[in-house]
Amino acid sequence: MSIVGYRRVSTVEQNFDRQDLGSVDKLFEEKLSGKSAKDRPALNAMLEWVREDDTVIVHSIDRLARDLRDLQSIIQKLNDKGVSITFKTESLTFSAKSDDAFATLQLQMMGAFAEFERNIIRKRQAEGIAKAKAKGLYKGRPKVVDDTKVKELRQSGMGATAIAKHLGIGRATVYKSLRS
């Protein structure tokens, strides 16, 4: 029986300081958005690593998932393996051995709030980008491909696949660069 910690922050600039989980046997951490469970390597590694009778500790519900379906799916996967999960901030524990209707209601409400918060953040971000574009301040993500270099390599006889490998980019990026 292991105590497993999972911590997540949304950006590389953030740190895990406020997510004190106490003493754990194994810790999984990642610095990326919680918008989708499938694109989170540490979460997936933790789900693979845990065994029956283990306990996963997470600081708060929104650190595990920002989507209610993802949240319920992750908890179900853990419980199906005989693993319990505890959220410290909300003081909620879910295990296959207990059937607490009130805890499930709280989880669904908190998960819905986390999803709502994520949607509000996305809306504000889109509004901010639109205003910055209108003022000419937002140029989008900086270009990482030198179109001139791609065209030079193509004129020298290299194919798209060879150019992509040479520059460490995808073939689709090569074709897009050649069109510009």
Mean pLDDT, as a whole number?
87
CATH architecture assignment name of the largest domain: 3-Layer(aba) Sandwich
Strand content: 5-15%
Distance between the termini: 58 Å
Major sheet: arrangement of strands: 2-1-3-4-5
Radius of gyration from the alpha-carbon trace, in angstroms: 22 Å
The CATH class of the largest domain: Alpha Beta
Shape: elongated
Going by CATH, the homologous superfamily of the largest domain would be Resolvase, N-terminal catalytic domain
How many helix segments?
7
Main sheet summary:
5 strands, mixed
Q: Residue ranges: pLDDT <50 for 5 or more in a row?
A: none
Helix content: 40-55%
What does this protein structure show overall?
Pfam families: HTH_7, Resolvase. Residues 2-136 form the Resolvase/invertase-type recombinase catalytic domain. It comes from Sulfitobacter litoralis. This is Site-specific DNA recombinase. Belongs to the site-specific recombinase resolvase family. By secondary structure, the chain is α/β, with parallel strands linked by helices. The protein has 2 domains: 3-117, Rossmann fold (3-Layer(aba) Sandwich); 147-179. The protein is built from 7 helices and 5 strands. The chain has helices at 41-49, 61-64, 68-80, 101-134, 147-155, 160-167, 171-179; strands spanning 3-9, 26-31, 55-58, 84-87, 92-94. A 5-stranded mixed β-sheet has the order 2-1-3-4-5.
Summarize the structure.
With 180 residues, the chain is of the alpha/beta class. The protein has helices at 41-49, 61-64, 68-80, 101-134, 147-155, 160-167, 171-179; strands at residues 3-9, 26-31, 55-58, 84-87, 92-94.
